Q: What sequence folds into this?
């Protein structure tokens, strides 16, 4: 395979999630008066789980409708997530840093992507000391639209000067990551089982490979 660009998701793929998204969502829901234990909270949490990987502001627009309410929820989510990161609840998944280093040593460009805002993405990168670990990092605001659209992968291609979509590999832990890869025309769309969705969901949304963890990705290209 002539893979020259590897687009990697963060939370659940290279960074441990450990329920942080759900905990931050709970804080956001409370801001809008939705308390845990009720049917409405359960319905919203189910949607959050199903749409892991999607731009968070898009998720809140779906859940709360009005733009003002969605923005309030998004701000509360970000504040809660930032507090969790600052409290030390942020760690790289085993082998992630080594995998990124190996990919770059082999001459491939690596771009880290997320469904979070730039502010949240930067907090995570700083907490891990990953500011310079990849060639580039992208959030939905950088690309125009977040997952499941192809924009993040295609923006990575444009920003790195990669010649063809068939030289792209996309890896993530959610069905939305898989849809991003397939819609972008990536040659490799790898799902990893360290995050939100199971093998059935990953394959249904287009995974060409399903891996136990991100450390297995370089072997796909051999």
A:
């Amino acid at each position: 395979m002539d893979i020259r660009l590897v687009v990697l998701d963060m939370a659940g793929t290279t960074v441990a999630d450990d329920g942080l998204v759900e905990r931050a969502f709970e804080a956001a829901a409370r801001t809008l008066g939705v308390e845990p234990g009720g049917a409405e909270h359960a319905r919203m949490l189910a949607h959050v789980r199903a749409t892991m990987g999607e731009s968070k502001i898009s998720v809140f627009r779906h859940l709360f409708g009005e733009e003002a309410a969605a923005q309030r929820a998004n701000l509360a989510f970000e504040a809660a997530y930032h507090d969790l990161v600052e409290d030390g609840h942020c760690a790289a998944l085993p082998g992630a840093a080594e995998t990124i280093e190996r990919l770059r040593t082999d001459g491939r460009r690596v771009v880290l992507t997320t469904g979070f805002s730039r502010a949240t993405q930067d907090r995570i990168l700083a907490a891990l000391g990953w500011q310079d670990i990849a060639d580039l990092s992208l959030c939905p605001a950088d690309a125009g639209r977040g997952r499941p659209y192809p924009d993040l992968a295609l923006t990575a291609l444009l920003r790195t000067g990669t010649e063809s979509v068939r030289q792209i590999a996309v890896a993530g832990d959610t069905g939305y990551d898989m849809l991003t890869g397939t819609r972008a025309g990536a040659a490799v769309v790898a799902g990893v089982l360290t995050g939100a969705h199971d093998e059935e969901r990953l394959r249904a949304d287009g995974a060409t490979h399903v891996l136990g963890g991100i450390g297995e990705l370089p072997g796909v290209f051999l």
Notes: The chain has two domains: 5-17+91-220, 20-86. The longest strand covers residues 5-9.
